[in-house]
From TrEMBL:
It is a multi-pass membrane protein. Belongs to the peptidase A22B family. Residues 516-535 have a biased composition (Basic and acidic residues). Its main location: endoplasmic reticulum. It comes from Podospora bellae-mahoneyi. The keyword Hydrolase applies. InterPro entries: Peptidase_A22B_SPP, Preselin/SPP. The keyword Nucleotide-binding does not apply. This is Signal peptide peptidase. Signal peptide: none annotated.
Length: 558
């Protein structure tokens, strides 16, 4: 969903009154507690941002690509579909204003907004299927990891790892560092859940289920001579897409607020997956540009409030009770949220940056002597940077639960991969969450004081950007924050050493990592519709979904 399709307005159906006297602090606190729609707005927005920010985590430039087992291909990394540029700070408010004004006059021209609402519900229901499917698929991944984690800890602090290929559990011997198979644990389930596999046959069935839900499936689509597409997904992604269709259909025909809120959450989540502010500087400029737009459209024109109240589509969160209705436009979630997601990815970047090690390497060079009769071999020792391998956080939340002992907040230290994926320090993200919460509370306060719709970005933008830059100032990291970018320029290999003719190291620099991931599969693009042979028939249209190959031991058992 583009930012042009969002509104930025928070309204409340309070009883009509002419007084503008500010409520007492105690009365305000009681109002928030006794009016659940207020708390629902704040909590829902924070939850969507938290989920979207964590779902948008990618391998940071300071980490090495994910380690793969021998014989496996390097997985293709997710990339943001679009990164913002500095010019977007001007273009976003202009485009958003054009769309908002167009909708306003269209509503005025139609006289009856129901016609436009039906069209918008139909259009956005179709558009939201993919975004809601992504949210549902990732949610199912979390549920799957709770039942089938890859790591768990018992009451004594022993870390068990579950090997899906060999169908056993093992622990790492602290003395030798080697994997030691635990003979009495052949279940794919952790801890007390292993009682669900009382026999070998039941255990084999569970291994099969684990295999189908955790391994990737292959989807192929081809039209002869035109296109060939091949990509990997998980079963949960397919299930999530199937779940999103009835949700979209139900919203289209019923129009319930709860269904609209679910669709809106999915659209916000998908936006976080696709869009990156590129850098803190660009993100801050874009937010302040929309900050001005929000103030003008809410306070000085009728466009925002009219469109927000008359347009019934999944472009806002709506919470109501018998007396009032509270609404929060998706722009008030997506616009600050994309910068907050960048803050979380910067926290991850810093975590891996601190793990970079310097290893000594010998540089051997050969030069001719001045008389040209013999060569001189010179050996020098320099250092090269070695990045820690990235641990994909997807599917790690179940591991975190099973690796955290009772009464603790973080996984045990021995579960290093789980800590790296889920429990890395997050000072900038938490600071932005505090700033966003403060901005929302100020918005609600102004709403109760003036009893008029408030431009939420008026309070959210200073809260979020102020929290981030003040945190950088307090930590002495302004230069690091300003220099961080997701345009690919920081994603470099470990080391390249340039040597002068005198066998001295004059420069050590990084080189860019190959950005065209997936080129190893280039030959596969000649398959199906693109492949020519001498047979009498060929596939004009091809679509298939292939399940992962199951180990022979599981097939025999079932």
């Amino acid at each position: 969903m583009s930012l042009e399709n969002t509104t930025s307005e928070l309204t409340d159906g309070l009883s009509n009154t002419t007084t503008t006297q500010a409520p007492e602090p105690t009365a305000f606190a009681l109002t928030l507690l006794l009016r659940p729609e207020y708390l629902s707005v704040v909590i829902s927005a924070l939850c969507i941002i938290w989920l979207g920010a964590h779902g948008s985590l990618r391998r940071p430039p300071s980490a090495a690509p994910i380690k793969t087992k021998k014989g496996q291909k390097q997985p293709k990394e997710d990339k943001f579909a679009e990164g913002l540029a500095a010019s977007d700070a001007i273009m976003f408010p202009i485009l958003a204003g054009i769309l908002l004004i167009s909708l306003y006059y269209l509503i005025e021209w139609l006289q009856d907004p129901d016609i436009l609402n039906k069209f918008m519900r139909a259009y956005l229901s179709i558009m939201a299927v993919a975004s809601l499917g992504r949210l549902a698929g990732d949610s199912l991944d979390v549920l799957t990891s709770l039942v089938f984690p890859s790591t768990w800890v018992d009451g004594k602090g022993t870390v068990y790892r579950i090997d899906s290929d060999e169908h056993h559990q093992y622990v790492v011997d602290k003395a030798t560092g080697q994997n030691k198979v635990v003979r009495d644990r052949t279940s794919p389930l952790p801890g007390f859940l292993s009682i669900l596999a009382p026999s070998k046959k039941a255990g084999d069935v569970l291994w099969l289920v684990r295999h189908l839900f955790t391994e990737e499936w292959t989807v192929k689509f081809a039209m002869h001579g035109l296109v060939f597409v091949k990509f990997n997904i998980k079963l949960n992604d397919l299930l999530g897409f199937m779940v999103s269709i009835p949700f979209a259909a139900a919203y289209h025909y019923l129009g319930w607020n709860i269904l609209s809120n679910i669709m809106s959450a999915g659209m916000c989540y998908a936006t976080f997956m696709l869009l990156s502010p590129t850098s803190f500087g660009i993100g801050t400029m874009v937010l302040w540009g929309l900050f001005v737009y929000d103030i003008v459209m809410v306070f000085y024109t009728p466009y925002m409030i009219t469109v927000a109240t008359k347009l019934d589509a999944p472009i806002k969160l709506v919470f109501e009770n018998n007396k009032s209705v509270s609404m929060l436009g998706l722009g008030d979630i997506v616009v600050p949220g994309m910068l907050m997601g960048l803050a979380l990815r910067f926290d991850l970047y810093q975590f891996y940056q601190k793990q970079i090690k310097l290893e000594p390497v010998e540089l051997v060079s050969e030069t001719l002597a001045e008389d040209g009769t013999k060569s001189v071999i010179t050996t020098e020792t320099c250092e090269r940077r070695v990045k820690a391998p990235f641990v994909d956080p997807r599917g790690q939340w179940g591991n975190r639960l099973w690796c955290t002992q009772f009464g603790g907040l973080f996984p045990v230290k021995e579960a290093t991969s789980v800590r790296a994926a889920t429990a890395f320090p997050k000072p900038y993200f938490y600071a932005s969450m505090v700033g966003y919460t403060a901005g929302m509370l100020v918005t609600l306060t102004m709403l109760l004081v003036f009893r008029h719709g408030q431009p939420a970005l008026l309070y959210l933008v200073p809260g979020v950007t102020g929290a981030l830059w003040l945190t950088a100032l307090a930590r002495g990291e302004l230069k690091d924050v300003w220099g961080y970018t997701e345009d690919g320029s920081l994603d470099t290999e470990d080391v390249v050493v340039d040597v002068a003719g005198q066998s001295k190291v004059v420069e050590k620099k990084d080189v860019e990592v190959e950005k065209k991931a997936g080129e190893v599969d280039k030959k596969e693009g000649k398959e199906s519709g693109d492949k020519k042979d001498d047979s009498e028939s060929y596939d004009v249209f091809h679509f298939s979904i292939s399940a992962p190959r199951i180990a022979s031991k599981v097939i025999k058992a079932t």
